[in-house]
Design goal:
The protein is of the alpha/beta class and 442 residues long. It is built from 15 helices and 18 strands. The strands form two sheets. Strands 6, 7, 8, 9, 10, 11, 12, 13, 14 and 15 form a ten-stranded mixed sheet that branches. Strands 1, 2, 3, 4, 5, 16, 17 and 18 form an eight-stranded mixed sheet that branches. Helix 5 crosses helix 6, helix 10 packs antiparallel against helix 11 and helix 12 crosses helix 13. The longest helix has 26 residues. The N and C termini lie far apart (50 Å).
């Protein structure tokens, strides 16, 4: 079916200015034409469905470039979260290593339309053997041994890297995620072999003992968590993920540190994407509350300090010309009516100095670049997937106007926001409550 959306006020995500009176012609799951209303009429088939937008704002579908949907695996929770995100405008998401047995099936179901969900691009994890003491690795390897499964591999100097990368590729992962406890030489070797086999590499900003500079120099495609980049200026050698050196927060508060300026320039030169997860620590601080207990108080103090660091470094990276993508690293909570990505975008504007249009680009084109999908999504152009949002108000004036969402088009299919009703969340609560009770009794 061909559908013509007429009368759009379009921000296409390419960097071009907003245009009024635009028609977007969708043919099945792709965009056939983007043109002025008058110019498009001749190219609209007589039997096409015509949707009059009446000046409504249209922006590309949003991309959350850092999510976890199966740690631990919980199908009901994952589907509820993904549904909420899609009906909130997220048309693609980057899953940064989980139980890929479940994630792979969720990705398949989303792709073929069995479930209402964003497209899912996901990573298989590699780390040093000592990382696999982390309880999360056991959660995502149930029934097997963490570090010895294709989606979660322990790497040493003796590892057969061509085989290890091939095993990761066999999970249908988009990328390998390099997590922790690997030296710079091994990070570089994994990256080189992955690229030789045609798979991307996503890494933590610091891998311990590999420094941020070594990670970037290895040629990884993206780095995650802006606050980890501060360890490029560490005053002592990095050792392990579990034993990070102290941070001199005052040194970086102004967002003008010379050591990090050199790192950001190298990232800009190489095209390394920064998956900043900028608002992560603000959320942790908020959830820690007022610190009623000693543990909560300590958590909140650390989170507040890291929050200031995240805001300052994200702003510095953006000013330096680094491609910054919008990721949340937010545990799924389908009780919230809007995707956590909205909070990240508001943070980029309010705390990091981006304009609403720049923040939107971080969640559209930059998000597509973060997962190597910019040829298929991220902008509204002929030949790309028909992924876009129709809004009642202008988000370039106020990023919070994303909440004026009328409907989402994902792969050409329309999802009306009005259809996302509260009873779907109630159904999830009932299902999930039974699931949790079953786990507890077991």
């Amino acid at each position: 079916m061909v559908v013509a959306y007429r009368g759009a006020t379009l921000l296409d995500g390419t960097g071009a200015p907003v245009r009024a009176g635009v028609t977007i012609v969708v043919d099945e799951h792709k965009i056939r034409l983007v043109a002025a209303d008058a110019d498009a009429d001749a190219d609209v088939p007589v039997d096409a469905e015509v949707v009059e937008l009446g000046g409504a704002f249209v922006v590309p579908g949003l991309i959350d470039s850092h999510q976890h949907i199966a740690t631990p695996p919980d199908r009901a929770l994952a589907e509820a979260t993904l549904r909420r995100d899609l009906y909130g405008g997220v048309t693609a998401t980057r899953d940064m290593a989980d139980d890929l047995r479940q994630v792979a099936d969720l990705a398949r179901a989303a792709l073929v339309g069995e479930i209402a969900a964003p497209d899912i691009h996901y990573a298989a994890l590699m780390a040093g053997p000592s990382f696999f003491e982390d309880p999360r690795t056991w959660q995502v390897s149930q029934g097997a041994t963490p570090g010895a499964v294709p989606w979660m591999q322990a790497i040493t100097e003796e590892t057969d890297l061509p085989l290890a990368v091939a095993m990761a590729r066999g999970t249908s992962a988009t990328a390998i995620k390099i997590y922790a406890n690997l030296p710079g030489g091994l990070v570089a070797a994994i990256t080189a072999e992955a690229h030789r086999q045609g798979i991307a590499v996503w890494a933590h900003g610091a891998v311990f003992p590999a420094t941020p500079g070594e990670v970037v120099a290895s040629g990884v495609d993206s780095v995650s968590h802006v606050q980890l980049l501060v360890h490029e200026a560490a005053q002592q050698p990095l050792t392990t993920y579990q034993q990070k050196p102290p941070i001199d927060y005052a040194r970086f508060a102004a967002g003008d540190d010379a050591c990090l300026a050199e790192l950001f320039e190298e990232m800009r030169r190489r095209g390394t994407v920064l998956d900043a997860t900028a608002s992560l620590w603000a959320r942790i601080a908020r959830e820690a509350g007022d610190g009623a207990g000693v543990e909560d108080h300590e958590t909140r103090e650390r989170a507040v300090a890291n929050d200031g660091l995240s805001a300052a470094l994200t702003a510095q990276a953006f000013r330096a010309g680094v491609t910054v993508s919008a990721g949340t690293d937010c545990d799924p909570d389908p009780e919230q009516p809007w995707p956590p990505l909205f909070e990240e975008l508001e943070y980029l504007v309010e705390r990091c100095g981006l304009t609403p249009e720049q923040a939107l680009r971080s969640a559209t084109y930059a998000g597509a670049v973060s997962m190597g999908a910019e040829a298929r999504m991220g902008t509204i152009e002929a030949g790309k997937l028909a992924n876009f949002l129709v809004l009642a108000e202008d988000p370039t004036r106020d990023i919070r106007q994303l909440r004026s969402l009328r409907f989402v088009v994902k792969r050409g299919k329309r999802y009306d926001r009005a259809e996302y009703r509260a009873e779907h969340r109630v159904e999830y609560r009932a299902d999930h409550s039974e699931h949790l009770n079953g786990e507890a009794s077991a």
